[in-house]
Amino acid sequence: MATYLPTLKQLQYLVALREHGHFGRAAEAMFVTQSTLSAGIRELESLIGIVLVERTRRVVRFTALGDAIVDKARRVLREAEELTDMARAAGKPLSGEMRMSVIPTIAPFFLPRILPRLRQERPELKLYLREEPSGAACESLHSGQADCVLLAMPYACGDIATAPLFDDRLFVAFPRGEADAAADAIAPEAIDETRLLLLEDGHCLKDHALAACNRPEIRAEATMMGTSLHTLVQMVDNGLGITILPAMAVDAGILDNTDIVARPIAAAHDSRHIALAWRRGSPREKDFQLLAELLRSGT
Predict the structure, then answer these.
(1) CATH value of 8-87 in 1.10.760.10, 1.10.10.10, 3.90.79.10, 3.40.50.300
(2) Rg (alpha carbons) of the chain, rounded to whole number
(3) Could you count the other beta carbons within 10 Å of the beta carbon of residue 173?
(4) Taking the domain 167-272, which CATH number applies?
(5) Sequence-distant (≥ 6) Cβ neighbours of residue 277 within 8 angstroms
(6) How confident is the model at residue 165 (pLDDT cuts 50, 70, 90)?
(7) Given pLDDT bands bounded at 50, 70 and 90, which one contains residue 79?
(8) Exposure pattern of 97-125 as b/e (b: 16+ CB <10 Å)?
(9) pLDDT, tens digit (0-9, with 9 covering 90-100), for 190-234
(10) Helix locations, the chain, DSSP H
């Protein structure tokens, strides 16, 4: 058994360097000097007797073993954080710091409705928000950068536990006069796939929209170029095509001051399912369940 073990601080330095790829930026993120961070990593390398990082004037390159140790370090740091989480969970529920990732097709439309109530009812909860696409949000969750994720299902997010919140129906948005604005709903077969504008890869709403249409040819014909729902709306308003929007965006007024009509899509999979997700077995599961109740009641 080793007499000396790596410290959590050394592991934090190593992970920060891997994430930022630059000693200066990693040191800034850790609120230490560059020399302190560099010395900490060298001490770690000396302790285990292996070079983890190849250093040159222009680039920082991790060795294969260095990458493997970074993955292990992330898990160790996450376990260490959960020690504190266990103590917090035994005290006052839903208090202290919590880091939540939220996908961009939810954050600007749902959070303004719920955050004021959270601040009022849970003033001791310090909720730090991070907006990122579904894949990055799930990665943040499993790497320990996020404690929970607010996302739309179905989505393959790994080994997680979830609490369903509500269903968010999908709408077809099109320029006024381009289709029958009096129709109660739009059938998938009525969608012109050559004019359909969708979010680019990385946004799960694209997959939910394609699933609602259930037309294989749409995946090949649709233009996937929007970086945000607001961008898609501007393109539709300028007559460049049609798109599919979630109800929460329509209800939040994303079509205000536009000449766009939105009608629900009439399909078997006409909704995405909004859920709160966390790592399975997390000691803060009761906190997440309580948070889910608050989010659910705010809809």
Answers:
(1) 1.10.10.10
(2) 23
(3) 25
(4) 3.40.190.10
(5) 138, 141, 148, 149, 150, 151, 157, 160, 161, 162, 163
(6) very high
(7) confident
(8) ebbbbbbbbbbbbbbeebeeebeeebeeb
(9) 888 888 888 877 678 878 887 877 666 666 566 667 678 999 999
(10) 8-20, 23-30, 34-48, 64-90, 107-121, 134-143, 204-213, 216-221, 229-237, 247-251, 285-297
Is pLDDT above 70 for 287?
A: yes
How would CATH label the architecture of 92-164+274-297?
Answer: 3-Layer(aba) Sandwich (3.40)
**CA–CA–CA angle 127, 133, 136 (5° rounding):** 80
pLDDT at residue 145, as a whole number: 85
* C-alpha angle 4-6-11 in degrees, rounded to nearest 5: 175
What is the C-alpha separation between 250 and 259, in angstroms, rounded?
13
Q: What share of the chain is helix, strand, coil (3-state, %, to 5)?
A: 45, 25, 30
Amino acid at 184: D
d(CA 120, CA 118): 5
